[in-house]
Specification:
Blueprint lengths: L3 H5 L7 H5 L4 H7 L25 H8 L14 H14 L3 E5 L2 H12 L5 E5 L4 H10 L6 E5 L15 E7 L11 H10 L3 E5 L4 H4 L9 E5 L13 E5 L1 H14 L5 H11 L2 H20 L4 E5 L9 H7 L6 E6 L2 H11 L4 E2 L9 E3 L11 H6 L6 E5 L5 H12 L1
Parallel strand pairs: 2-3, 2-4, 4-5, 5-6, 10-11
Antiparallel strand pairs: 1-7, 6-7, 8-9, 9-12, 11-12
Helix pairs in contact: 5-11, 6-10, 14-16
Length: about 400
């Protein structure tokens, strides 16, 4: 990572990383941890405490006045959440961050911190269903307007920026369409128009893509997905500059979307295996995509590192690998899609993704069911669309299950 030395001034809790002086993703993810206690534990403990003791009245006053750094209340900070945030800052090249209870809490908190009545946002049309609901049914009631732009039509984005536009929001790769946009292009566009560029980096993770290095101001993750990677806990995180995260914290301290210490501990430990897990997710997903692209019962396959993907060259430029999600369209519409899903024996049918276990989801009747059919068609979600989250099982077993379900 090119800016590790700059970030070290922010990170105050690291011990092993300071010793190692490594810039390698895997080493940072494993060797970054809270300062050891007098018990000299090897693994970070869980700090299950809601509050903290002050040495005296003056220390309490100074902490609440922000004249001194330290923990005041676990809704604000906790050693476990701090460790998780500090790891993510180093891995993604951010100065600071705030951890939230869920990925959607991270998106809501970011919108709430920076948007006010009368503001306008330009968003990619291909967004998660709940993000669409925030834009259409929540923030619209608070006087925030928006326009959708298509990821495959970058030439249209600049024309949607208005005098009251405050934010450009994008999900890349998108859920579930796996559409991609050039983040360097968006970074330059945001800079030209003095816009805040916010990127949902959930599908790529910091291992595969680092939006802040490409011009984004804020990077958001649903840590529930690949960062946990085993379907155990919920979590989210917002990453950016110190100044921007200060505004996020100002909103979040009072609205209360904080991540629990236990979940933060799980997520921090999970980062230790993120790189090796993502390598296998990507390896398996590419093989699945290549297999399905040749299958006569599959009408369409979308995967970033397939040469047939419309934004293949952009994906190769800004992503290390293609990720673990393959979206397909089964020939024959919803009946064929249901037949395929019901025929799966090993795959789980679930609304989640990014698990060690392979998962099949029908977006039109689940995650994106609140969109109208016209809205789903605009982002490429057909009745025959299925999102495949490719897990860590042996590739032969994954392919065998798909093959027998399509028979």
């Amino acid at each position: 990572m090119s800016n590790i030395s700059n970030l070290m001034s922010h990170i105050s809790i690291l011990i092993s990383y300071n010793i190692m002086k490594s810039e390698n993703f895997e080493t940072i993810a494993i060797r970054t941890q809270t300062e050891r206690s007098l018990h000299k534990e090897h693994s970070s403990p869980i700090y299950l405490t809601s509050s903290y003791k002050f040495e005296d009245a003056e220390e309490m006053r100074a902490l609440f006045a922000n004249e001194k750094e330290g923990n005041v209340y676990s809704r604000y900070s906790n050693p476990n959440t701090s460790e998780f945030i500090d790891k993510m800052c180093l891995l993604e090249g951010a100065e600071d961050g705030f951890a939230t209870a869920t990925g959607m809490a991270a998106i809501f908190t970011t919108f709430g911190a920076f948007l006010k009545n009368g503001d306008h946002i330009v968003s990619s049309r291909s967004v998660f269903g709940s993000t669409h609901q925030l834009l259409t049914n929540v923030f619209s009631n608070w006087g925030v307007t928006f326009d959708y732009a298509d990821l495959d039509k970058p030439e249209d984005w600049e024309g949607l920026i208005k005098p009251n536009t405050k934010m450009i929001f994008v999900e890349t790769p998108s859920n579930p369409g796996i559409d991609i946009i050039d983040l360097e292009f968006l970074g330059n566009l945001a800079k030209k128009h003095n816009q805040l560029l916010v990127v949902d980096n959930c599908f790529a993770t910091p291992y595969l893509q680092q939006p802040i290095k490409l011009g984004a101001h804020i990077s958001i993750h649903s840590a529930t997905k690949y960062i946990d990677g085993q379907g155990r806990v919920l979590g989210g995180i917002i990453l950016g500059t110190k100044a921007l995260i200060a505004e996020v914290v100002g909103f979040a301290r009072h609205s209360g979307p904080a991540l629990s210490p236990f979940n933060a501990w799980i997520l921090s430990k999970s980062l230790e295996t993120l790189a090796i897990r993502m390598d296998r997710h990507c390896e398996n997903a590419l093989k699945v995509a290549e297999y399905l692209e040749k299958h006569p019962k599959i009408k369409l396959v979308k995967y970033p590192f397939l040469p047939s993907h419309p934004q293949y060259e952009i994906a190769k430029k800004q992503m290390k690998q293609g990720g673990g999600i393959v979206t397909i369209v089964v020939d024959g519409g919803i009946d064929a899609a249901r037949k395929f899903m019901d025929g799966l024996q090993m795959f789980s049918i679930s609304a989640n993704l990014a698990d060690t276990r392979s998962i099949a989801t029908h977006p039109a009747t689940s995650t994106h069911s609140k969109l109208t059919e016209a809205q789903r068609n605009e982002v490429g979600i057909e009745q025959g669309s299925i999102r495949l989250s490719i897990g860590l099982e042996h590739i032969n077993d994954i392919l065998a299950d798909i093959e027998q379900a399509l028979a």
